[in-house]
Amino acid sequence: MKRSIASVLRSQSTTLVAIIVVGTVLLGIASSGNFFSPIPFRTFFQFLAVPILIGLAQMITVAVGQLNLAVGAIGGVAAALSAVMMADAGVPVWLGAVVPLVVGTLAGLVNGWLVVLTRINGFIVTLATMTILLGAQYALVSTRTVSAANWAPLADIGKATVFGLPVIFLVSVVVAILVALAFRYTVTGRSLLASGDNPEAARLAGISNDRSVIVAHAASGLLCGVAALVSIASLPGINQSVGGDWLLPSFAAPIIGGVALTGGSVAVLGTVLAATVVRLVDTARAEFQLAPAWVNFVIGAVVLGTVALGRVRQVRQERRLGAERAREASSTAILEKTR
Amino acid sequence: MRSAIRAQLTTPRFLLFVIIVVLVAVIVALKPSFLNGAFVLAPLITSIAIFTVVGLAQMVVLSIGHMNIAVGNMAAFGAMISGISFDLFGLPLVAGIAAGLVGGGLIGALTGWIIARTGVNSFIVTLAMSFALLGLVPTVYSALSTGSAFVVKPAGFDALGRDSFADVCQFGYCGPAAIPVMVVPVIVVMVLVAVLYTKTRVGRELLLTGSSVKAAEFSGIPTSRRIVLAHTLSGVLAALAGILLATSIGSFTPSIGDEFMLQSFVGPILGGTLLAGGYVSVTGTLLGITLTLVIRKGLELFGVGIETLNVLLGVILLIALSADRVREIRLRKGRTPDASAPPPSDPARSADRSTEEVPA
């Protein structure tokens, strides 16, 4: 029992919760309590939805040992296509809300399918599709901004709150819970993790690694689509910059949250908490009126630090285990000799 | 002898060369203005020169099987150091460029050191580095310069970036206006990199590290040091590309290097450099870059928008990589008889392979 409390205290999530609590208190003091008044509070959670969703989108691909450089581009195209359809083609709003989900899933399917079919490194495939999709996004909206007035009902949902919390934030939390349940209880989720952990072992256990890769990319694309939908609902308009700044946060959240980059593990709670920390950094930046570039710098440095520390910890642990094993081996050898 | 010629004719480099020639012929036939020396060819060759250096910056890390997501940001960082040395310290041209190259090299060395020390995937480390620099560079610019640009130009700055051989006259004869002066340093750099990989022990060791880290370690190569070296070189080359770009546009700005990342992969990969490491091609990188930039220039002449260009670049990258994949499979098939031979020759064989395949 004592040990489990100790391990809880040492886990990544506990550290993140502590950082969030301290950060929130400091921000509250720095803004002389203004941070806790309804409007800044709501804004904070409103703009937390997208980072959580794209962090989860990246986490799913990382779990199978892939990565998805196209998160921002998929989200951007999905949002742009839906916005243009609602504004120019007069597509009803409910249909416009479905479009990003479909576009995202399709784009993810294409990514996964290309990776499996060509056996090219997923990095390069998604780099190429990212470029293509960025071109498509620019072709769709070019330099204009499609105003949110074209989808007033959606925009209302984007502003709606339940008990002071924005609906879109609750949507992202529900999505996170669904992702966590899927990885814990469904066969597909377990096989994704198995493929990511050890493809050879997964193959021998009768799991199709190709299927895992395709499913992971498709699910990642779907989450990008949800993030696009949330952007449509919450932003004042959709233009070519939507999705442009998603890449770093999408990697930062799972990495800081404790997901192993080598695949085979997920940390939904950690990812959500890490996204919250990133959002806190951004809010603090706005509070102290620093240049937006600072956020990139801080997050880049934190990611580097997390990755390096995690690796050091892992090496130390391996060394300790090795030493233990060596001690055991030598003691058994002595036993055998005395016998 | 004949098989050697045939082998040359089936390399991706020859194919690229043919495609470029055909493409240029088609563009010239449709738009004779393509041959305008001072206004079309000179800018085209300038960007080919700059982006070839960008491609080489990626190629040296690909040679050890790593990648550098931060090429563009390292270019921006190196250029920033040069800009500061000119603007705030008033250094002469060569000293300022040297300072920038050292700056790029230090950032690259730091990246390589983190990768070698922690063993973390190069993708993640360079991604994090790229964002750290993405934050740092504009902050420094806005702190140290007015209007977010360093504009002081030392003597020879414009000559390096904008002159063509028409400005270089000797014995009453001037060179063609189509060829910018910048090609001279770039050719020197290309030759140096090619010599490194074909003639020196260190270059061989880099390639062997890329083919198989384990085999390299067993043959006594200090792989960690080679990893740091490759990333340092990448940083230096990226910084050089950034500085050259600054000389051609006339000032140092934080946006230098924004377009480098995709191109840096397209060039070497089109030219036959393997993503998995262990094989590089300097001429291939030049040809790959040339192809994409000729296409870009052609599209510009026909008035096609930038978005089509992006889509096209992505498609080219995918096709080129599928071709890369096919080539790899064929290579492996060609090697199957060897595979049944006793395995101890493995490291030696990969060393042989790199000897044969690196063009001089």
Automatic annotation (TrEMBL), chain A:
Keywords: Cell inner membrane, Cell membrane, Membrane, Transmembrane, Transmembrane helix, Transport. It holds the Pfam family BPD_transp_2. It is found in: Cell membrane. It is a multi-pass membrane protein. It comes from the Bacteria. CDD domains: TM_PBP1_transp_AraH_like. The chain crosses the membrane at residues 12-31, 43-62, 69-87, 93-116, 123-140, 160-183, 213-235, 255-281, 293-312. Part of the ABC transporter complex LsrABCD involved in autoinducer 2 (AI-2) import. Probably responsible for the translocation of the substrate across the membrane. The complex is composed of two ATP-binding proteins (LsrA), two transmembrane proteins (LsrC and LsrD) and a solute-binding protein (LsrB). This is Autoinducer 2 import system permease protein LsrC.
UniProtKB/TrEMBL annotation, chain B:
Keywords: Cell membrane, Membrane, Transmembrane, Transmembrane helix. Residues 332-360 are annotated as: Disordered. Pfam families: BPD_transp_2. Residues 349-360 have a biased composition (Basic and acidic residues). It is a multi-pass membrane protein. It is found in: Cell membrane. InterPro entries: ABC_transp_permease. The chain crosses the membrane at residues 12-30, 36-57, 69-89, 95-116, 123-144, 177-197, 227-249, 269-294, 301-323. This is ABC transporter permease. It comes from Herbiconiux daphne. The lineage of its organism: Bacteria, Bacillati, Actinomycetota, Actinomycetes, Micrococcales.
